[in-house]
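[Structure tokenization] protein backbone as discrete codes
[Encoding] learned vocabulary of local backbone shapes
[Protein] chain in single-letter code, fold in tokens
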Amino acid sequence: MSSPDRMDGSEANLLKWIDQFREYLRVANRPQTTIRAYCVALRQFQGFARDRDLTVDAAIDFAQQLHVASVAKTNYLAAVSRFYRFLIARGMIEISNRDWERFREFRHDLGRHGTVRPTLRPKRMSKLSYSAPSLTPSSHLNLNTCNTGAT
């Protein structure tokens, strides 16, 4: 059902997959400048991801270790994101929706702030100024009528 090189982040497979991705971009008539930029980014990623599984954490770690301008990091992550989507569509890697959303948020934060925003800690509230409402059966959320907006 799956090929023996599926999910294997070996350098040989990465080279093969990057070549397939480059050919896909060429056949899809992407601009030559885009193809070159993606290949530069993916060569850097290849060196970093050698002998690693291709996961969201690997992509995030890659971006965090890059010592380039934030706009370049954004471009490199765009290339990695597009490459991952190419591999996912062909069944070469699997990434959960939750992990993909985490990656998307990381990319969004990186693009907006130049770095990933620090996680803000909630303000401490005293028990006198706030008490959580109790959950009674009548106050539970009816999940059948909840619209999450997920597609």
